[in-house]
């Protein structure tokens, strides 16, 4: 089942307790493994940890994809979320070390709301793999493995088919259609062409400026657009013309819905 990160990023998690081990990610090894420099410890300190040391951390519950291209995309998404950033680790009581790796729940905030394990599992790339003696967040992680791709709702005042939208330039509405082709500019802009591929002038374009692309990758995965050809999408925004081609400029992930 295809899944969505946007829900996790926007809603966050009601934590069971604040994570107790702060650190900085010094290296991303794969989609579920990072190196972390430990910057603080609770009292008493968990066995095997000392402040200032660098440890290999494996995310509890995150199953890596088998396809090499998906594994690399998940690594890129993991890097986008945590590389070089301060993170906060929560450990289980019984399951901590195995094969030299520290198994942990990883958060982006000290309160324990932005849950990296759940964000990755909610993506189309990772899955949920229960771990013996590490069951604290199993219900949350299992749920995120089943979340449909895209925001749960898209508040559309009206929905126009891609091939009729040109009649409604200047209106704010939703436009829906199949992705016929995708492309990027030298500057990093992303284009989703609905109905007909570029450069057919009869197409409808969803335009994501480069400065906003990172937000969409955080919501849908690294280079998510490469997997959209043939899928139907719906977008909310003002319909406008650019060089005679109707388009919507997208700046927020919640205004894009990828339909199953």
What are its keywords?
260 residues, alpha+beta, OB fold (Dihydrolipoamide Acetyltransferase, E2P), 2 domains, eight-stranded mixed beta sheet, five-stranded mixed barrel, elongated
Describe this protein's structure.
The protein has five helices and 16 strands. With 260 residues, it is an alpha+beta fold. The chain folds into two domains: 139 residues, OB fold (Dihydrolipoamide Acetyltransferase, E2P); 101 residues, Nucleic acid-binding proteins (OB fold (Dihydrolipoamide Acetyltransferase, E2P), Beta Barrel). The strands form three sheets. Strands 9, 10, 11, 12, 13, 14, 15 and 16 form an eight-stranded mixed sheet that branches. It has a five-stranded mixed β-barrel with strand order 1-2-3-7-5. It has a two-stranded antiparallel ribbon with strand order 4-8. About 3% of the residues have low confidence.
